[in-house]
Design a protein that fits this description.
This protein has five helices and eight strands. By secondary structure, it is of the alpha+beta class. It has a domain of 128 residues. The strands form three sheets. A four-stranded mixed β-sheet has the order 3-4-5-6, covered by helices on one side. A two-stranded antiparallel sheet has the order 1-2. It starts with a helix and ends in a 12-residue tail after the last strand.
């Protein structure tokens, strides 16, 4: 074996030792712990569509007209239609709400404007029955008691005008469960269903 061959063998042997050493180093040496914060992740561009909550549609305000009594510009006594805000979900049908409002009477601010009623304060709604072909308004006897003939006529007209304005069906007046064809101590004749000519006898 000449000198060159010895050098080549030594070189090969050295290289093998280095390779074995590197392999042993990688296998035996503990790998450093990688923290999550050290991991770089490419961010995706995500567009989130946030649907704005729809605003509830404001329902148009509805009103019913209730007839009380007041004065016009000439200081003459007239039947006054007073607007009352109405909600079907809260107040039921228009006729029920209107008649109930009539029996309760004018509000304080309406009284301050000179609006009043001839309906006695003891009057009460017993029931309002809405049938397919008619409406029956049943009031207690206080509605037709006291105040004299003129007052009775006025309160009946208040009722008639309020009922006719808030129902397309024929409306009948009952007192304490009985159809009121004759009302009051004076025996006022009332033709039914209620109409503007019901008291024209």
């Amino acid at each position: 074996m000449d000198r060159n061959q010895k050098i080549l063998l030594l070189f090969i042997g050295f290289c093998m030792i280095v390779v074995i050493g590197l392999i042993a180093f990688n296998v035996l040496m503990p790998k450093p712990e990688i923290k999550p914060s050290q991991i770089e992740v490419a961010e995706r561009s995500v567009i989130e569509e946030v649907e704005e909550p729809q605003k509830p549609q404001e329902q148009e305000k509805e009103y019913v007209n209730v007839y009380f009594i007041g004065k016009n510009e000439h200081n003459e006594e007239v039947y006054k239609a007073v607007k009352r805000e109405y909600s079907k979900d809260v107040d039921g049908s228009k006729i029920k709400f209107a008649i109930s409002s009539l029996i309760r009477g004018p509000k304080t601010e309406e009284k301050q404007r000179g609006v009043y009623t001839e309906v006695p304060s003891a009057s009460e709604v017993i029931s309002i029955s809405e049938q397919p072909d008619k409406v029956i308004v049943n009031l207690n006897s206080a509605f037709v008691t006291g105040g004299g003939t003129e007052s009775l006529y006025k309160r009946l007209y208040q009722l008639i005008k309020t009922a006719k304005l808030n129902s397309t069906l024929p409306v009948y007046l009952y007192i304490d469960g009985q159809r009121a064809d004759v009302v009051g101590g004076e025996g006022i004749m009332l033709s039914q269903p209620l109409s503007n000519s019901s008291l024209e006898n």
